[in-house]
């Protein structure tokens, strides 16, 4: 933002320059007022500088400088994305200030409120908060997209292909207004409302699905971004939806846990549906004893044997690992008092490969089928 007054030039140029200078000074004054009000977001002010931590790797600096001051900096240190964000933010705060002027004019043309002995506070204009909410919201949306792509990529590398999810960014849409307010003001007013984006998808479990709604609101309490998560897992009716979460670590853990349960159910259901299982006296089907831990059991070929094979699955956004154990169970279904990795059994891992390299390892179901018959 630039502020100066140059005595040279024609009268018309001097009038325009004076108008722009007053406008820029007012704009920065309102920005400082709002910055002090939202100090809890990490926004700091000093002299003619406002420092805003916008997102993970983005920091915004608003500085009031004179037009005659040489502020040129090396262009090699500024990315194209950073330049676009700076230009977009510069246009945004000016549009929002003009919108605030329109709202003030409309309020002053209405009947005044009754007089009171107390002075009514003048709220700060919303100039920084809408732009900051947009940047933070898009940062959370991109993070969630990256998480789902990583998890689905890991599952696809193991030959497990869950259905694709659908995303609706800024799904609130334009609301209809019956008021005579101009359409442009209605459009800008939508930018001041809480932001919402939704992600919906199905899983391999029949009638299983998930829904994630990202809410971002910096205009009124509660401030910040929340993830509202809803899971539908008929196979495990005791699984409760996480509800509203605020931290990325919690969201990642919840989604990973849901997909882990989906993989466990897929293994147990596919092994029990094979025709050869009906002719096997040992009924060698994988039983999900502790699905929340990714653990399944299968009996050994020897009848009346306490030894069983246990399959342990671990899922993360980076890999899917599987390991086989030999356990001796007390009751045949619970955790045993003796457990050790099976002989010649190394953890088998699937990771997404960005490039075509050596032959792909066997799929998860092929590997499980091979272990079941051994």
UniProtKB/TrEMBL annotation:
Residues 348-374 are annotated as: Disordered. It holds the Pfam family Med17. Its main location: nucleus. One of its GO terms (molecular function) is transcription coregulator activity. Signal peptide: none annotated. GO terms for biological process: regulation of transcription by RNA polymerase II. Belongs to the Mediator complex subunit 17 family. Component of the Mediator complex. This is Mediator of RNA polymerase II transcription subunit 17.
